[in-house]
Design goal:
single chain, mainly alpha, 6 helices, rod-shaped, Putative TMV-MP30 binding protein 2C, coiled coil, MBP2C
């Protein structure tokens, strides 16, 4: 029967224990062997009629001696092989423990990697949320910039309109000053022509006296011309008062027309007297 190395080693170990512990009961001594050999020789010569079984018994004893001698001889080799196997088993167990430690380290490293990957995924999720919030904030900022630009354009338009209005106001003020100057001038002319008290018409205009060297004589004008001039003067004073109250283009134009009408009457009467 062919035995595998592990079973062979086990069988050899059992044989070794048997030979070491109880081999003295089975292995005969040298004197016993010699005595038995002499007895066998004497028995052969004295009892030739002994059956074949006695010879076979002696042969079996010799075979048993050879077998036990061989077992005793091979037990030392088995012990060496067993020691070698034990040493190899110890090395294998040491390597197995090392591999177990490496496996545990690998498992710990795997757990750490899984935890790191989970943390990385969480950080990626947070970064994604922050990116979305940043894009939303940038969109709001862009909208705010557009609204600010619109308001800036509206403000510039209002500023331009205000400057234009200021220029118009300055122009109207200049025209009003010119009208007031003309009012003062014609008021003095009318005072010289009519020789009446017209102070109540000139107190509201902050006028300064202006003297003309050529004032037409009232005696040289007829009554109809004086009436026309008086009516034109009153109409002009009313137009100037309306212009001071409203301060618009229409009232200024009306005051200017009244002034031209009064001026034409005065110049006409002056040329007539000259």
């Amino acid at each position: 029967m062919v035995m595998h190395p592990p079973y062979k080693c086990f069988f050899l170990l059992i044989q070794t224990y048997v030979l070491v512990l109880g081999g003295s009961h089975y292995i005969p001594t040298q004197s016993a062997i010699d005595s038995k050999s002499r007895n066998v020789a004497q028995s052969i010569s004295a009892t030739k009629t002994r059956d074949h079984g006695a010879n076979e018994q002696g042969q079996n004893d010799a075979d048993s001696f050879s077998m036990f001698s061989g077992r005793a001889f091979t037990s030392e080799k088995d012990i060496e092989e067993l020691a070698t196997l034990k040493e190899q088993i110890g090395d294998l167990q040491l390597k197995l423990r090392e591999k177990d430690e490496l496996l545990k380290s690998a498992e710990n490293l795997r757990d750490q990697m899984n935890a790191a990957n989970a943390k990385l995924d969480e950080m990626k999720h947070q970064v994604s949320e922050k990116d979305g919030s940043l894009k939303y904030t940038q969109q709001q900022l862009s909208d705010a910039k557009i609204k600010l630009a619109d308001k800036q354009a509206a403000l510039e338009k209002i500023h331009w309109e205000m400057m234009t209005s200021n220029k118009k106001v300055e122009k109207l003020q200049e025209e009003l000053d010119s009208v007031q100057t003309d009012i003062s001038t014609f008021t003095l002319l009318l005072e010289g022509l009519a020789k009446t008290d017209t102070a109540k018409y000139t107190d509201d205009y902050d006028t300064k006296p202006y003297i003309f060297s050529h004032v037409p004589d009232i005696d040289d004008m007829d009554e109809m011309e004086c009436q026309k001039i008086e009516e034109a003067r009153k109409a002009y004073i009313v137009a100037v008062a309306v212009c001071n109250e409203k301060q618009d283009e229409e009232s200024v134009a009306a005051a200017a027309n009244a002034r031209l009408h009064l001026q034409s009457l005065l110049f006409k009467s002056k040329n007539f007297n000259l």
